[in-house]
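Allow me, if you will, to draw on your knowledge of protein folds for a short while. I have a record of one protein: its chain in single-letter code and its fold written as discrete structure tokens. Kindly check, if you would, that the fold set down in the tokens agrees with what the sequence suggests. Thank you for your consideration; the sequence and its tokens are set out here:
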Amino acid sequence: MPTILFNLGLAFMTSMMGLSLQRSHLISALLCLEGMMLTLFLMLTTWATEQQSSLLFSALMMLLTLSACGAGTGLSLLVTTTRTHGSSNMNNLNLLQC
């Protein structure tokens, strides 16, 4: 089990590093955020399986629901910025003038 948690922790850190270093396009930032949420979900799922608690499983479903809502909001922002500015390149966006 520790190798699974190590691999999931490594995937979380890779997504975090990708989010901090690759900020040129909005879609890449959204993919990194989604990767972070999915690895967090998988880590909490393995921990809840070890603990065998039904309360943790309901919290996991709430986390997954909030993750899906965040992904939907991010994609709607992506579509909106692409329609108004012509591209999803974050270097061209000036959020103070939108």
User: Anything to note?
Assistant: The radius of gyration is 17 Å. Residues 54-85 form the longest helix (32 residues).
